[in-house]
């Protein structure tokens, strides 16, 4: 089988995941090819400013990975000199929505550009005037990759194409071409814990349908003890144990509640999400409201006349330190509504203590929704999420239905085994690494070796980025390293 690896995310653990997959395929005797960027792309998902030291670091990591795999040079493919019609790229885009809507030869490359920019600059309503150069460079790069991908597929005719995630600007064009041509592709991502990775066949990590099927199939195939394993997910989360990503509640003051919390009124706790995580993904969007912020404001407006009902908004800790569109809008909502206590992302109020004290929990897509249902709270789910096909949630279809629910004395809904299915899936999804050993979220070794740049390369990066004024210092540093 002829396999093409087409990756742009050359950071740990994603480059090691690619190597993990490649090692097994090589042992099975398959014919592998890899695409290497030598700086031809104007931008990419990890280097929008095209900083030279990041480019060198990326090439160094890729070279190290090829050396460890023992990959011959003829198996490395490069981007070629293909024409890109820049007249097709608008001089400016009125909003990020127009960027998302941009297509090229039927491929939604604009969504990949928007998704990458939103993730990089952490703002779901990115200022398209301020970032017009980055947008145009992103569109150009995606078109350039699209043309090169067509050439590579025509010449190589791979049986399988493997790449990271599928949503980023320099990867999405290849995915869409594979879909168009009926070529089998796989996407990889982090697993449920740092010791695992996941492979999806002809899908992405963001397909809600695929994930719902995966949860059910995983439960059906699960061995004895799956109920205890499913419960462990929720216990670990509450105990702030890291699984596959940062523990945002780790520094919170356990048991703490807002100073104005009064138990003698109806308390509804809202949990939002950091919108930049989802806004660039087509399948995850508002079900009732245009955004979390819009939904929060409309609910508060509907209950302004009810002094017996008070809302608490636990701003997602992932928004800590940001001054983006979402945070500015939330601060304005906090000033506008007297029936809301806004708990800032940086505040130490305990997410779980707040959940326990709530009469009703309201979520849009955050994982805290499934956790709250597990711990016996009535949960109103207002958006699309990975768990919205499971039992245990009130799911209104309109704003009016949401208001009617919140006016009631809601009780927790029965969920059978459904939430344990989710917990089991979270912990068990993925394939255990055999060759890569994770030491932290972004650190680890492959077959005992680090893929990170060597000390000499680090010195060269320092020397080249700081210029001639640092020449003497750089030479001394290189000299010391060579003696070691």
Automatic annotation (TrEMBL):
It comes from the Bacteria. It holds the Pfam family Capsule_synth. SUPFAM superfamilies: UDP-Glycosyltransferase/glycogen phosphorylase. This is Capsule polysaccharide biosynthesis protein.
């Amino acid at each position: 089988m002829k396999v093409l690896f087409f990756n742009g995310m050359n950071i740990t653990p994603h480059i090691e995941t690619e190597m993990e997959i490649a090692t097994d395929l090589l042992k099975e005797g398959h014919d592998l090819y890899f695409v290497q960027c030598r700086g031809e792309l104007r931008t990419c998902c990890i280097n929008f400013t095209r900083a030279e030291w990041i480019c060198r670091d990326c090439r160094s990591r890729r070279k190290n990975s090829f050396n460890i795999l023992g990959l011959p040079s003829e198996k490395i493919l490069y981007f070629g000199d293909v024409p890109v019609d820049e007249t097709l790229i608008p001089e400016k885009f009125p909003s990020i929505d127009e960027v998302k809507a941009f297509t090229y030869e039927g491929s939604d490359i604009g969504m990949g550009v928007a998704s990458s920019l939103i993730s990089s600059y952490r703002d779901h309503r990115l200022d398209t005037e301020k970032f017009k150069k980055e947008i145009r460079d992103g569109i150009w790069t995606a078109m350039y990759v699209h043309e090169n991908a067509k050439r590579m597929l025509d010449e190589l005719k791979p049986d399988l194409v493997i790449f990271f995630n599928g949503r980023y600007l320099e990867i999405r064009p290849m995915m869409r071409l594979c879909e168009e041509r009926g070529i089998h592709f796989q996407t990889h991502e982090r697993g449920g814990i740092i010791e695992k990775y996941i492979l999806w066949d002809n899908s992405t990590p963001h397909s809600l349908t695929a994930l719902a099927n995966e949860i059910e199939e995983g439960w059906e195939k699960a061995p004895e003890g799956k109920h205890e394993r499913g419960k462990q997910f929720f216990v670990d989360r509450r105990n702030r144990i890291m699984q596959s990503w940062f523990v945002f509640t780790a520094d919170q003051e356990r048991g703490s509640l807002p100073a104005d919390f009064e138990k003698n009124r109806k308390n509804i706790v809202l949990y939002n999400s950091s919108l930049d995580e989802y806004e660039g993904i087509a399948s995850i969007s508002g079900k009732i409201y245009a955004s979390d912020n819009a939904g929060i404001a409309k609910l508060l407006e509907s209950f302004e006349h009810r002094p017996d009902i008070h809302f608490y908004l636990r701003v997602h800790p992932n928004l800590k330190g940001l001054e983006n569109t979402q945070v500015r809008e939330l601060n304005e909502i906090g000033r506008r509504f007297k029936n809301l206590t806004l708990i800032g992302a940086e505040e130490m109020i305990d997410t779980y203590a707040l959940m326990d004290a709530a009469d009703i929990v309201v979520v849009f897509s955050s994982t805290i929704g499934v956790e709250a249902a597990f711990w016996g709270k009535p949960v109103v789910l207002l958006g699309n999420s990975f768990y919205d096909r499971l039992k245990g949630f009130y799911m209104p279809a309109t704003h009016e239905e949401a208001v009617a629910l919140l006016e009631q004395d809601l009780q927790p809904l029965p969920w059978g085994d459904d939430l344990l299915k989710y917990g089991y899936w979270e912990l068990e999804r993925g394939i255990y690494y055999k060759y890569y050993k994770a030491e932290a979220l972004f650190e680890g070794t492959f077959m005992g070796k680090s893929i990170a740049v060597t000390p000499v390369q680090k010195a060269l990066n320092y020397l080249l980025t700081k210029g001639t004024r640092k020449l003497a210092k750089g030479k001394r540093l290189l000299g010391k390293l060579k003696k070691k």
